[in-house]
Design brief:
This protein is an alpha/beta fold. It has helices at about 5-10, 15-30, 35-45, 65-70, 85-95, 115-125, 145-160, 180-195, 220-225, 245-255, 260-265, 265-280; strands at about 55-60, 75-80, 110, 130-135, 165-175, 230-235, 240, 290, 295-300. The strands form two sheets. The protein has a seven-stranded mixed beta sheet, with helices on both faces. It has a two-stranded antiparallel sheet with strand order 7-8. The model is unreliable at about 1-15 and about 195-215 (pLDDT under 50).
Length: about 300
């Protein structure tokens, strides 16, 4: 459909669902995404990301990690399954004054994964030297945790094919649950999303997947399934700090980790229970502070 048709008619007002989706995209960009800055910085320092780095960001979201790499003079390309987040990433990376690593070429951004035209275009110029997957890879249609991991491994294999021999692929996820205060809040979402286990009642849908594969060796197992070999790992403190309770609830909802809970119950109930779970982490001045540790794995192609 051409844009001419859009201009001939008065635009329809956004539905509540669409307006809510846009609000959550903004909440991610303005509230939640910055919580992972220490992780981005630690990885970039370890890999000496800078001039000469050609970086592909899988699940690049609203582009903060790409922007930080570009500020180090890296040439960046990002892909994501969420078009709203990509639109904000474009706003950030195409703004005047944003560094353009690798010469005059602006950041390349595209919808999808490593199979997208923009990723293949960037790799055709020169193979990537670094691939990052700071967030779970989108796996539409995955019906079980095992299928989701298999699909994620397939995505990483595709990305590795665009990466030079010896290039780095970085996976990241939660650290040990006992060192992540946010785990208590995430359990609320898992509980609400899970069908009630009554006698004789068979579970119809699996509980929602965590931020990334769980278990001590989850990242290593995923890398192995993608044909990558591990080359070191690290842990990074990524505390989640919010100006107040409303900001904390909005930030956590923007992650998408509570979407299944909202579908299984209702948004009002989910907000209520998130708020209750956050109370132990609210300080006397109203701010909310949850210490967390994230883990990353560097794997090689």
């Amino acid at each position: 459909m051409t844009s001419t048709l859009v201009r001939r008619h008065r635009p329809r007002p956004s539905s509540p669902r669409t307006a809510d989706a846009h609000a959550r995209t903004r909440d991610w960009a303005e509230i939640q995404e910055r919580m992972l800055v220490p992780l981005y910085e630690a990885v970039y320092e370890r890999l000496d990301v800078g001039a000469g780095t050609r970086l592909l960001g899988l699940g690049c979201g609203t582009g903060l990690a790409l922007l930080m790499a570009a500020a180090r003079s890296a040439a960046v390309c990002g892909v994501d399954a969420d078009e709203r987040r990509l639109d904000l990433a474009r706003e950030r990376l195409e703004a005047p004054g944003v560094p353009r690593g690798g010469g005059a070429r602006p950041a390349l951004l595209g919808l999808g994964g490593p199979e997208s035209p923009c990723a293949r275009q960037a790799a055709a110029d020169a193979a990537f030297t670094v691939v990052t997957a700071f967030e779970p890879l989108a796996v539409p249609g995955a019906g079980s945790p095992d299928e989701a991991v298999a699909a994620a491994a397939a995505t990483l294999t595709e990305a590795a094919a665009l990466t030079e021999r010896g290039g780095a692929v970085v996976l990241a996820g939660w650290g040990p649950p006992e060192r992540c205060a946010t785990s208590a809040v995430l359990r609320v979402g898992a509980r609400l999303a899970d069908p009630v286990d009554s006698p004789g009642c068979r579970r119809e849908t699996p509980p929602p997947a965590p931020w990334w594969p769980s278990g001590r060796d989850g990242l290593e197992e995923l890398a192995a399934r993608a044909g990558l070999w591990p080359d070191g790992s690290g842990r990074v403190a990524c505390p989640f700090g919010y100006a107040g309770m409303d900001s904390a609830v909005r930030g956590l909802l923007s992650t998408g980790l509570f979407d299944a809970a909202e579908r299984a119950t209702d948004p009002t109930q989910v907000r209520k229970e998130i708020t209750e779970a956050l109370h132990p982490y609210q300080r006397a001045d109203g701010t909310v502070w949850m210490p967390n540790v994230f883990r990353y794995l560097v794997a090689r192609v």
